[in-house]
Design goal:
The complex is a heterodimer of chains A (221) and B (425). By secondary structure, chain A is of the alpha/beta class. Chain A contains nine helices and ten strands. In chain B, helix 1 packs across helix 11, helix 2 packs antiparallel against helix 12 and helix 9 runs parallel beside helix 12. The chains are: A alpha/beta (221), B alpha+beta (425). The structure holds adenosine-5'-triphosphate and magnesium ion (MG). The site of magnesium ion has 3 residues of chain A, from helix 1.
Chain lengths: 221, 425
């Protein structure tokens, strides 16, 4: 699913000078794996995830995800890759306020190359997959609990039936019980064949993963 | 290339309803003022051009030089000079004109379209070649009928307008149209005057005139009669019946006029461009005031564009995370650029249509008010405005352009949102 080689990413950070966040990271993830990436704050976990998901283009090295070579890909092609092949889940949900949860779930369709019809039905199905009802879908994000919001965000990531889910601290903003539910959901999704790479600090997510990697000093081990 | 952004545009505009409304309203004000003033300028310009100073742009009025050049005979308009004038390059035809050089009065006693009228009036008369006014003659042949029959006469369109709008109402005389006037016969005594003592040598020549039409080419303060009639009266009064008082040169094309004017001046003759100058001055005055008001309106639109730039900048900044998420779920840079620009486009269309409609409503309302509230006066138009389709379409286009111009940089900033930065946790 993922084949990344010799990834290098640095920031030019005024006072501190050149900051090598990724310093020769190589990573292979097989189809259907559930990989957890851990590391101290600031070790570059989010940076790595953005490179793997085609959100960051300012790196050196080679990345192939689900058969698509990402390095050097033009903006439009990368956008299409993000739209169809990967789904992102963030720590702070990042839902659009002022519009319904359902509208949030079908956001990817607004940017799809060929939006398939029956968008609402598909969005409802995605909500059902994460354990939410049509009533939840009708509400605005502000009217949902934290756990429900993260489920909506996961439903949005699942909307386009991606092959890879990239999660950045997905349980970081949730209480213990809710976090357990979300982890259980990831396990179910993974059992259904979805490849998951999750960045985390948390033991519960780490223990759910089939493999745990540690990012430190710009290297992955 | 991308899916339908329309739902997102709607969502975003609905969410920022107040800001969107104020942006669109600003545009509407600018567009309304532009459409209104241009419409007014076009209307008033047309009134000046077509009614107040109807100038035929392909006509050159040649008059004799003020000083004659003695032996050379230059400066007068005799047959030989007219022949040379008609041979000038660019001249299609020369129309000779001869004033009746004797004074004339009309004394009318009797029924005047249903009212008793008793009036004595000093009259000027000019004789013109029949073809010069042929198109406006409604009755009979425009030729000299000889001493005993009424002379066909043409009145000035503008004179009729002044009569109808100020002279007649003040004296409770009937309103007249060219149609109604046609056929009207009135007495006219040549070689007689109320204001100057007439030469003893000649006695009055009583005659009659019959109105046969009205024309823009008619003498403003008098009547226009066939050239031969003027010649005959001048001869009968022992006055100059040979040289002409003017020649109207019809150019093959208005663009030839400057060349003809130069050639005429080189012949030692003058060109009477008083009417043309007045028309041009009045036209320029209208054009200048319209342009300055239009400029002001464009400034308002510019302000509206700045307002939109400001509002969209703020909105894009506030939506940074949202735009980042859109990038994450598959928005290209182009798609985000388009998303913001289409939002502005909608505001532009709304503002443009609203502004154009406002301007239309205002101009129609003022026209209606003018009909009822402004008293009649000469050249008072039915409408003070012109509302050509291009102007209405232009109003909408202006709204769209201002909105899109204002939103351009914010849209670019939106397209450059770095998702890795705004989404990092
Ligand atoms: N735009 C940027 N400019 C400069 N430095 C940056 C930028 N983005 C990230 N960094 C730095 O790069 C390093 C890695 O950042 P990253 O967000 O990948 O860390 P992380 O492992 O996800 O941390 P956390 O666990 O706190 O989320 C950090 O030291 C951070 O300060
Ligand atoms: Mg992070």
């Amino acid at each position: 699913m993922i084949d990344a080689r010799q990834l290098e990413r640095h920031y030019d950070d005024g006072a501190r000078g050149r900051l090598a966040v990724l310093d020769g990271v190589s990573l292979t993830v097989a189809d259907g794996e559930f990989v957890a990436i851990v590391g101290r704050s600031g070790s570059g976990k989010s940076t790595l995830l953005h490179v793997l998901g085609g959100l960051d283009t300012d790196y050196r090295g080679q990345v192939t995800v689900a058969g698509t070579r990402l390095d050097g890909l033009a903006d439009a092609a990368l956008a299409r890759f993000r739209n169809e092949t990967v789904g992102f889940v963030f720590q702070s949900f990042h839902l659009m306020s002022g519009v319904s949860a359902l509208e949030n779930v079908l956001l990817p369709a607004r940017f799809a190359a060929n939006p398939v019809g029956a968008l609402h039905a598909r969005a409802q199905a995605a909500l059902a997959r994460v354990g939410l009802t049509a009533a939840h879908g009708a509400r605005a994000p502000g009217q949902l609990s934290g756990g429900e919001r993260q489920r909506v965000a996961i439903a949005r990531a699942l909307f386009s039936s991606p092959r890879l889910l990239l999660c950045d601290e997905p349980t970081g903003n949730l209480d213990a019980a809710t976090a357990d539910e979300v982890v259980a959901l990831f396990k179910t999704l993974n059992a259904g064949g979805l490849t998951i790479v999750a960045v985390t600090h948390e033991e519960r997510l780490r223990s759910a993963a089939s493999r745990v990697l540690t990012l430190a000093g710009g290297k992955l081990s | 290339m991308s899916g339908s952004l329309w739902p997102l545009v709607k969502l975003s505009l609905a969410r920022d309803r107040r800001s969107a409304l104020s942006s669109a309203f600003g545009l509407a004000v600018g567009v309304a003022s532009l459409v209104f003033f241009v419409s007014l300028g076009l209307g008033v310009g047309a009134i000046v051009r077509e009614k107040v100073f109807p100038v035929d742009s392909s006509l050159v009025e040649v008059v004799p030089a003020q000083l004659s050049f003695g032996l050379l005979g230059g400066g007068t308009l005799d047959e030989a000079t007219v022949a040379r004038l008609s041979a000038l390059p660019g001249v299609e035809r020369a129309f000779k004109k001869m004033n009746v050089r004797a004074p004339a009065v009309t004394i009318y006693r009797g029924d005047f379209f249903g009212r008793p009228l008793h009036m004595g009036l000093e009259v000027l008369a000019v004789g013109v070649e029949p073809d010069f006014v042929r198109g406006d003659v409604l009755l009979g042949e425009f030729v000299d009928p000889g001493p005993d029959k009424p002379i066909p006469a043409i009145a000035s369109t503008r004179l009729l307008e002044i009569y109808n709008k100020s002279f007649a109402p003040q004296r409770s005389l009937p309103q007249l149209s060219g149609q109604l006037l046609t056929g009207f016969i009135f007495p006219i005594d040549f070689n007689r005057s109320f204001v100057t003592s007439t030469p003893q040598s000649a006695s009055a020549i009583p005659s009659q005139a019959q109105l046969v039409g009205v024309s823009d080419r008619g003498l403003l303060a008098g009547i226009t009669i066939p050239l031969e009639a003027a010649r005959r009266i001048n001869a009968a009064a022992n006055l100059d019946a040979k040289t002409f008082t003017g020649v109207a040169l019809k150019a093959t094309d208005p663009s030839r006029v400057p060349g003809i004017v130069a050639a005429v001046k080189a012949m030692g003759l003058r060109v009477d461009d008083q009417e043309r100058r007045m028309s041009e001055n009045a036209g320029a005055a209208v054009a200048i005031s319209t342009s300055s008001l239009a400029l002001l309106s464009v400034l308002i639109c510019l302000l509206a564009a700045f307002n939109i730039a400001h509002a969209f900048s703020a909105s894009v900044r506030a939506r940074e995370k949202e735009l980042g998420v859109m990038r994450a779920v598959g928005a290209s840079r182009r798609a985000l650029f388009r998303l913001v620009l289409v939002e502005a486009l909608v505001l532009g269309v709304v503002g443009g249509v609203l502004g154009t409609a406002l301007a239309l409503a205002a101009s129609l309302g003022l026209d209606l008010a003018a009909v009822h509230l402004v008293p009649e006066f000469p050249f008072k138009p039915d409408s003070w405005f012109q509302r050509p389709v291009w102007l209405l379409g232009g109003g909408v286009v202006l709204g769209v352009l201002a909105a899109v111009a204002g939103a351009w940089l914010p849209a670019r900033r939106a397209s450059r949102t770095d998702p890795a930065r705004v989404l990092a946790g």
